[in-house]
Amino acid sequence: xxxxxxxxxxxxxxxxxxxxxxxxxxxxxxxxxIYHEKTTTVELNTIDKLCSALDCxxxxxxxxxxx
Length: 67
Fold this sequence. Notes:
With 67 residues, the protein is mainly α. The protein has five helices and two strands.
């Protein structure tokens, strides 16, 4: 299983979805769907934009947890 930790990162950095969308160049809907785990796929360029905007690594946002 893949654990999504976007909300944790945003909370630590005190950022809301609109700020992350603006910083990353992603749409508010995209950030919303990832934040609320409403999507099963995320494009690599979307992950790249989030990592750049949040100054973090992929493993900071997503974590593999064995079933």
